[in-house]
């Protein structure tokens, strides 16, 4: 096949004229710059807010190709939300310091904890999701997902003083509701009981009430599943039904330990 024919066929099969990877790249850079603006002591808030506004407008222009999308004057509304987002993130960082014996300072949490970074980008993406800005909120949280191993959909509702430890492998689905002072460890899934396209915009992920701890690799599924306040969900638990408040739920594996007779006889 001639090179000209190959090129012609490739062009013919590029069927998404609005698919611009520049949008992804700019959104990731915007997310990083926004994090620096809120937390880095050497980053000028005044200078960066102006730069962020310019970059945000470029992102909006790339994202809002479809008619009828709510893309006008988003920046002014978003800017007004940043102080409250920072207040919540400071509480998240404080919760990590107060609950993780391995953490020593807020600075350590902000610099070294992937769970905190994932929470931060989620909280920064959440208002844009609520405004209806297409694609951008998901690009922000997927950027954090790639960097941290934590997948938090921007549609999830998460309360104050949220604690994630170790981070890797955590999945928090789109319609999840998490109340205040919740602690989650690595490998936890808050997911749907089953997946069908007809369930779009229907609550299909669990609700976690306040002061709940969910240990490593627990899986909690279903839109009607509620984990009652002050409960502890042990590691490797699989739940598809609600749990009353003040519950302790644990998984009992069948583990057997025997002496190795071969080693004993060799000695």
TrEMBL record:
SUPFAM superfamilies with a match to the protein in the record: Trimeric LpxA-like enzymes
KW Acyltransferase (keyword) present: yes
Which keywords does this Swiss-Prot/TrEMBL entry list?
Answer: Acyltransferase, Amino-acid biosynthesis, Transferase
Would the keyword tRNA processing turn up in this protein's UniProt record?
A: no
Q: Name one GO molecular function term.
A: acyltransferase activity
Please list the GO biological process terms of this entry: amino acid biosynthetic process
Q: What is this protein called?
A: Serine acetyltransferase
Q: Known PANTHER family for this protein?
A: SERINE ACETYLTRANSFERASE (PTHR42811)
